[in-house]
């Protein structure tokens, strides 16, 4: 059911805030920033701007109503901490009469250490799904730990980005080396990934030819790559055996080259290949930042090159940096970016709601890239809190509802463990460890259920091995036993005689909501026809973890 | 149908030149091509059914580590680079291969041996990717692997098994469905001797069916709490997966169903079993099977180690060709034997050979390829190719030509950049004449 929402309320709100009706005609890449405002009014301003930019001019806009408490709690828990609320949390939250309970919930979850972990895993996948070699997985655990700490401390996004651009050190201990390592220090690829991840710009198309749709020239790409020729990756040894890899600065001309021993180590400067004569050395490139045109000289040491770029890239007046983060986080939370795909915002790409984007990015930059502020603000918008719908068609307006989307591998692992009543902490410890990396059930699970989070979310599809793992896999079926009290399901059946109560509890555990009447009837009927109570509830739990809803967030 | 699809590809470019697969499919329904309920997989299988009429299949025997050309298909007896390896006559006069492969020598009339393969990648991971995709690895585009392209281009919809199967574990960096999506990823079988993971229901078939029914009823009763598109895709996926689980065709994975005489003929070794499984799967309608034999990275004790490896390779490879021929399947099944590169002509101090992408071997058989010939060659010391150099692009052009796939076909990358199946190169003409 799609409900018509009263646009006038929103518009009145916008007028009350004194919003201008015409957008500041900002040039791409610059941010109009105003004085920082408290979060609540920032959220209201976002809603008002969207109403102005999109819904007012579009008679087809049918706004979804604000979602109920159960759905909101499940959504915000998955979005912030990557897990479902417990049945007890659901009951308490739904019954809580306080009018500010949603905001308080958001604060509590932002302060939860699982927040950092959840988003660390998201960025781990953003970076490592684009690895050119599996050896880069060595950095996986360190990357996750590093980002978990930084997000939990609410380190500003510019400081985090700078750490990645400037990184050197052992992969197993230094998570910030991940981007360089994932590209094995190839200057072109590191440059491309840096621009994609932190600036939302796919400048690598200009590697071989002038960009067909964006304004960057081939030379500008290679000037940008010229910040990275000296970053290298080399193996580390212990007792004569290779034990890992490290990222190092390389500022001395190599006397000889041993293939396979050092990557990204060829020349001290970057050369743009001559397309007419590929075997020639090419043209010497001076490091220059394409977005602002600021230049270094050739001959500058690696450390200085990269710290300089890190500063230039994250400078407030640039703008791409703030917009790229805002676009990604907005897309993850609302289900659809202002630009899609989320990492392709180039100067000539269309933005669904430019004023809203400018406003949010400007505020984010003005608050020194305060990561939790951005979450808090987006989660407080009515736009975020609307009921979900499938991704709208191209000819329908954006942001009239939150978009239902598929959970990431880590989230599914968490949700499944909780649904089966397993203790995450104890199962995380299982499995062999190699060079600080654990190949336990989560790793195996992610290799089946994971996906590149930069892909358009509506294009992420399930696979046969995923369906098989949920239907027939050991992880599920070993625990899915009702007739002994040694399993969580068995315990529940032994302690709860009432079949309706068991059904409700299983729904809360699996889907964080109560069953509707039809579902309850279907389940109780199943118990009656099967005869064996334990078998019937094994079937019900099996069916719940195999449902569409189980794998998606609404 | 082809025309329509081509047309839709054009339509699928909006003003920004970027469009997703879903929108593309929506475009199709808007164009009143169908009732409007088609999803992406449906559209692809429409085209796939067309191509399937050709009934082609491919088996890739992947030699992880980089097999030595000197000890396999391009021996150099009498030259110091050749070491102790001898050359033996084959069923084709004038063609000699290493004495490590006597059974394969008897099949030379079915083999087209490419001795002038040449690439620029001497690193295992990069070269493995290159020889699976014809592209060097890059962060911006995930190029689909050969098996994914082939199964995307013609999936056999009458077959309830996965269209692309990998047997074994030796596939570091061999890529997967990439930009084509996870539905074209390889279905991995850890060992040919066991059924694949998670394909057997943990309950009786009757109860399994009961659970599926309950799942269906609860999905309906639960209403549209998730998007109808997602629920539709999920339902289709579960139908497909459970059809596969319950399918009698799953017996193709069970080698014990094969007469012992046949199992003996393949050699009952790990690689022998993988080759037999590959044949069984193709027979059951699987489009692409990749079976691997590892440990070819012989930096030391090259001669001894390659002799052992050839002992594991010779009989299964030779018998696979015989078996396919006897069953009338060879003409429509292309068999490709290759690794990521060759080994250095100079023998190092540890009696080993190091990585050498400049001149190495690939062998092709079946699939309309003319056997009993050698393409290109190397100089006396095996250091440089003579005759026509064959790059990875030429090789992939040839493989696709054999499989009747148009290598100029373009996929759309997520940022709207067209990606050719193979970008450049020429099919090797003499393979098909």
Describe the structure.
The complex is a heterodimer of chains A (554) and B (433). With 554 residues, chain A is mainly alpha-helical. Chain A has helices at 7-16, 39-55, 69-81, 87-95, 101-110, 113-128, 140-152, 157-166, 178-182, 187-199, 218-225, 302-314, 320-334, 354-366, 371-380, 382-385, 409-419, 424-428, 441-449, 464-472, 474-477, 488-495, 499-511, 517-530, 533-545; strands spanning 169-170, 231-238, 241-249, 271-272, 283-284, 388-389, 402-403, 405-406, 433-434, 437-438, 552-553. In chain A, strands 1-3-2 form a three-stranded antiparallel beta sheet, with no helix packed on it. A two-stranded antiparallel ribbon of chain A has the order 4-5. Chain A has a two-stranded parallel sheet with strand order 6-7. Mean pLDDT of chain A is 88; it is low at 1-30. Chain B is an alpha/beta fold and 433 residues long. Helix content of chain B is 34%, strand content 15%. Chain B contains twelve helices and 16 strands. Chain B has helices at residues 2-11, 21-30, 40-52, 102-105, 124-133, 146-153, 205-221, 228-246, 260-266, 270-283, 302-326, 392-402, and strands spanning 57-63, 87-89, 96-98, 111-117, 164-167, 187-189, 288-293, 333-339, 342-343, 355-356, 360-366, 373-375, 377-378, 385-386, 410-412, 418-420. In chain B, the strands form five sheets. In chain B, strands 6-5-7-1-8-11-4-12 form an eight-stranded mixed beta sheet, sandwiched between helices. Chain B has a two-stranded antiparallel ribbon with strand order 2-3. In chain B, strands 9-10 form a two-stranded antiparallel sheet. In chain B, strand 15 (410-412) and strand 16 (418-420) form a beta hairpin. Chain B is globular and about 75 Å long. Mean pLDDT of chain B is 86; it is low at 1-53. Classes of the chains: A mainly alpha (554), B alpha/beta (433). Chains A and B meet through helix 10, strand 6, helix 20, helix 24 and helix 25 of A and helix 2, helix 5, helix 7 and helix 8 of B.
């Amino acid at each position: 059911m799609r409900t018509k929402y009263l646009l006038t309320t929103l518009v009145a709100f916008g007028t009350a805030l004194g919003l201008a009706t015409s957008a500041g005609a900002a040039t791409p890449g610059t941010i109009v920033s105003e004085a920082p405002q408290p979060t609540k009014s920032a959220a209201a301003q976002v809603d008002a701007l969207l109403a102005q930019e999109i819904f007012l001019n579009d008679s087809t806009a049918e706004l979804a109503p604000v979602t109920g408490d159960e759905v909101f709690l499940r959504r915000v828990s998955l979005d912030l901490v990557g897990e479902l609320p417990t049945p007890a949390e659901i009951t308490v939250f739904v019954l809580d009469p306080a009018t500010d309970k949603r905001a308080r919930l958001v604060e509590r979850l932002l302060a939860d250490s699982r927040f950092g972990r959840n988003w660390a895993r998201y960025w781990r996948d953003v970076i490592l799904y684009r690895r050119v070699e599996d050896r880069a997985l060595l950095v996986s655990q360190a990357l996750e730990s590093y980002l978990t700490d930084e997000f939990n401390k609410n380190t500003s996004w510019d400081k985090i980005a700078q750490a990645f651009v400037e990184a050197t050190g052992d992969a197993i201990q230094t998570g910030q080396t991940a981007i360089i390592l994932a590209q094995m220090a190839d200057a072109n690829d590191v440059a491309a990934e840096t621009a994609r991840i932190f600036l939302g710009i796919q400048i690598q198309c200009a590697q071989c030819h002038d960009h067909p749709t964006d304004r960057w020239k081939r030379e500008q790409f290679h000037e940008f790559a010229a910040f990275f020729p000296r970053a290298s990756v080399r193996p580390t040894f212990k007792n004569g055996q290779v034990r890992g890899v490290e990222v190092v600065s390389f500022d001395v001309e190599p006397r000889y080259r041993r293939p396979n021993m050092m990557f990204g180590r060829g020349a001290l400067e970057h050369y743009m290949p001559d397309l007419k004569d590929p075997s020639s050395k090419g043209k010497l490139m001076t490091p220059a930042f394409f977005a602002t045109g600021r230049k270094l000289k050739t001959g500058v040491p690696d450390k200085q090159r990269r710290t300089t770029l890190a500063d230039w890239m994250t400078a407030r007046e640039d703008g791409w940096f703030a917009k790229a983060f805002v676009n990604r986080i907005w897309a993850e939370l609302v289900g659809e970016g202002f630009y899609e795909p989320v990492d392709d915002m180039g100067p000539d790409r269309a933005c669904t709601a430019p004023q809203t984007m400018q406003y949010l990015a400007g505020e984010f930059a003005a608050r020194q890239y305060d990561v939790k502020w951005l979450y808090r603000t987006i989660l407080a918008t009515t736009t975020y809190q609307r009921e979900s719908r499938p991704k709208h068609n191209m000819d329908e307006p954006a942001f009239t509802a939150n978009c239902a989307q598929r959970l990431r591998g880590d989230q599914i692992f968490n949700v499944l463990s909780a649904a089966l009543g397993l203790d995450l902490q104890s199962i995380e410890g299982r499995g062999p460890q190699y060079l600080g990396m654990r190949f336990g059930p989560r790793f195996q699970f992610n290799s089946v259920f994971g996906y590149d989070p930069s892909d358009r979310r509506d294009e992420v599809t399930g696979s046969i091995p995923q369906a098989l793992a949920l239907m027939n896999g050991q992880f599920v079926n070993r625990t899915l036993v009702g007739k002994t009290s040694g399993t969580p399901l068995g315990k529940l059946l032994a302690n709860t005689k009432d079949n309706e109560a068991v059904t409700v509890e299983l729904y809360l555990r699996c889907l964080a909501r109560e069953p509707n009447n039809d579902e309850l009837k279907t389940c109780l009927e199943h118990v009656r026809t099967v005869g064996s109570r334990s078998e019937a509830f094994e079937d019900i739990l099996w069916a719940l973890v195999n449902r569409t809803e189980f794998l998606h967030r609404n | 149908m082809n025309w329509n699809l081509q047309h839709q590809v054009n339509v699928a470019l909006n003003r920004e030149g970027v469009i997703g697969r879903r929108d593309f499919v929506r475009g199709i329904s808007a164009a009143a091509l169908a009732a409007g309920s088609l999803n992406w997989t449906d559209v692809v299988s429409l085209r796939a059914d067309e191509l399937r009429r050709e009934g082609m299949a491919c088996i890739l025997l992947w030699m992880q580590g980089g097999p030595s050309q000197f000890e396999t298909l391009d021996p150099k007896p009498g030259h110091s680079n050749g070491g102790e390896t001898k050359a033996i006559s084959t069923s084709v006069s004038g063609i000699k291969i290493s004495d490590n492969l006597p059974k394969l020598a008897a099949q030379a009339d079915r083999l087209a041996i490419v001795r002038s393969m040449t690439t620029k990648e001497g690193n295992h991971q990069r070269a493995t990717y290159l020889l699976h995709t014809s592209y060097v690895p890059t962060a911006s585009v995930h190029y689909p692997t050969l098996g994914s392209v082939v199964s995307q281009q013609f999936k056999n919809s009458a077959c309830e098994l996965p269209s692309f199967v990998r047997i074994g574990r030796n596939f570091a960096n061999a890529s997967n469905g990439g930009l084509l999506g996870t539905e074209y990823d390889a279905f991995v079988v850890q060992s040919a001797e066991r059924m694949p993971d998670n394909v057997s229901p943990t309950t009786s078939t009757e109860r399994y069916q009961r659970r599926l029914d309950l799942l269906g009823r609860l999905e309906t009763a639960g209403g549209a709490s998730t998007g109808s598109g997602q629920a539709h895709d999920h339902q289709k996926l579960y139908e497909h997966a459970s059809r596969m689980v319950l399918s009698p065709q799953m017996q193709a994975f069970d080698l014990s169903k094969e007469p012992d005489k046949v199992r003996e003929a393949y050699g009952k070794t790990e690689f022998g079993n993988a080759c037999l499984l590959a044949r069984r799967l193709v027979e059951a309608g699987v489009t692409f099977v990749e079976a691997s034999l590892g440990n070819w990275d012989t930096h030391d004790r090259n001669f001894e180690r390659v002799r052992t490896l050839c002992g594991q390779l010779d009989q299964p490879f030779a018998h696979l060709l015989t078996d396919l021929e006897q069953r009338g399947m060879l003409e429509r099944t292309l068999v490709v034997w290759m690794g990521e590169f060759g080994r250095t002509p100079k023998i190092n101090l540890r009696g080993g050979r190091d990585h050498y992408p400049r001149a190495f071997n690939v062998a092709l058989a079946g699939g309309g390829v003319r056997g009993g010939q050698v393409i290109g060659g190397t100089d006396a010391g095996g250091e440089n190719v003579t005759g026509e150099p064959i790059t990875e692009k030429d090789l992939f052009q040839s493989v696709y030509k054999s499989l009747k796939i148009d290598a100029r076909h373009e996929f759309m990358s997520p940022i709207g950049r067209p990606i050719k199946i193979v970008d450049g190169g020429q099919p090797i003409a003499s393979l098909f004449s």
